[in-house]
Amino acid sequence: MDLVDSIRKKPRFAIAIVLSITMIFSLSILFNGIKYEFNEESFLPDNDVVRANKEVLTEYEDYYYVVVLAKSRDGNILNKEDMLEILEIEKKVNESLNAKSFSFADFISSIFLMNENKEINYENRIEVMERKGNEDIKQLLHFLSKIIPSSYLSIFLSNDFDGEKANATIIQFSLNSSLIFNEKEALEKERIIERIISEEKTEHIEAIVLGGKIIEEDIMRANKKSIAILLPLSLLLVIIILLLTYKNLWEVAISLIILFLSILWVYGVASIMHFSLNPISASIPVLLAGIGIDYSIHMILRIKEGENEKIVFSALLLSTITTAIGFLSNVVSSISLLQQFGILASFGIFSCFSITILLVPSIDELKNFEKVEKTKFVRNVIVKMVKKASHHKTATISAIFLVTAFLFISSLNLTSEYDIKDFLPKNLKISRDARYLISNFNFSTGEIDVLIKGNVTSAHLLHEIKSSVDNISDSHIVKIESILSLMHDYATNDSIFDLNYNESFSEMYSKVMENDLPKKNATYEEIKELYDWIYKHGRHVLHKNAKYDGTLIRIHVSTKGEKKEVEKLYEKVKKGIRIDEKHIITGSTITAYVVMNAFQKSQIESIILALILSFVVMSIVFIKKYGSVILAIFALIPVILSTIWILGTMSILGISLTVTTITVASISIGLGIDYSIHVVNEFATHREIERVAKNTGHALMASAMTTIFAFALLSFSLLPPIKTFGFLISLSILFAFLASMFVLPLLLDIIKK
Known about the structure:
With 753 residues, the chain is an alpha+beta fold.
């Protein structure tokens, strides 16, 4: 007795199993809850570069920075009234959070106070600005432009700065560095700044807090809202297709119940495993609405059309395994976000299959499905198309080969990108403001950090740092900072506005250092004395436990994120600096480069793993059932074709590999292989391509349509990456259906003898 017969013999027991498991998952959700989280860390792979970058952020950053964009309502942020409102905001934030801040208003007012030999504090800054007029500000700007490079003057001003006026500026608040990895508290502090600004009721400026945690929370909130809209729409489309397919409300309700239970099971597993849903994994309910419904369509239609459901059971089991493999192949990724997505999606597919197999035969046994004739229209159209392709077999296969070759060559030009800002919804105000900030301010520079561990008080190490810095030269390098340059900065008076120069440190420095290096007779204690002063007063480029055991070389670069330029610069830095376990290259620019490489590696590994495991599983089943491994080989052809087609199409459309699109290839294998399995399974039973088209065409068309429409709805998501993801998956399903329905039968017909 097989499984289907056992279920039909004890239908109530099968239903009780489904309800019991559902109860367990429901209780887990009730007690553990469902967490939603969106942060940049989950996008990062686990490797030495990323771990070193995290260490730099933890140990070498003095502050957690929050940016506030200030836009002038009167067209010039450098007017007296505009800058007074900025100073009032800074003063109140400082009083509330003890936050340090810097803005162009600080810079201008501080120079006025220095000319009057007054103490620099917010009360005096506001007082002096109240006494000055717009003409005083213009005169100061003209004077400063003669002695200070314009690039320095414009660092906190929008790109339209012409020497006298600018439309916008930024205020940078510096909070405690412990907030870098304390997301909850960081969000609270950012919201406090937001509340202070909203209570200020400014007349001349509009101030917008663009803190990282506020942006992340708003993205996640927009994603929840988007899914709350898209899921009901996807269900509505599924209901329409099911009504056209079944023509019976009761049977539509059964398919929807199966879908609802499978989504509940996925959330149950997420709560048990303490996964936090993100914009990608939160789209799984929509994904299941398109994929999971296929199982009930195939099973119910077979029963309604009087066919033996045991035939379709083996195909469903095999397609479940291979689809789950397609999703699980993301587990090999070094990116935790993709790992969780693969686990939850594969479990969702398994849930849909299990619930369908347990419920559909049981319900049919208790209350028979209405028997109908096979739908002639869909069947006849598909049969005619397959026949026509068969009559022009050579021409059809040749055309497919040429198109595939062209798209394969195109796929080789795929590029990869990584930018968390891509998730900014276009229609949110905070997104528009963030994009305004990116477009109108000079944020083209990035950082390459060299993390050095060991006894950094050694004179030999300082010589090594000097030699390394001298060895690095590239047109993309803007500035290099190290413990040597920092000490030089505090010891040297470069201009009348040099705020870093310290006379007492300069005296200590001149006794120990010469030409930015320790003198020959410099002792460990003397170097340590310099370090002690820098550690107390300077920026955080030293790490200290019992002794100074780490330092940082920070290389400011301008590559505009172009991968080839970053790669060249990375190689130059590696040649100029000794790299070992105590010298690690990291930083924002290199981390982004490593993430892009991880995307490409993840794609290749997941495709290869999905194809190999799918082939192994199908080979075992087809050898056991039909004594043929060739069927398994041919079943892979449509998914290989559809994978090449979708990657080539991405390249032609200029769509890069990102944290969302990287999953498209493996998912297209997992989803597309279902269609070829049903076709091969039917062909192995009847050996006639017309019979294959008659028996599978209707169900495959209905299941393909539900999947395509469900994913197409994601293209209406508020998040741009999810839009692209939905479009590409819909297209890949269409490709897989066409390849399975109209290419695979032709190839099978050639080898049927």
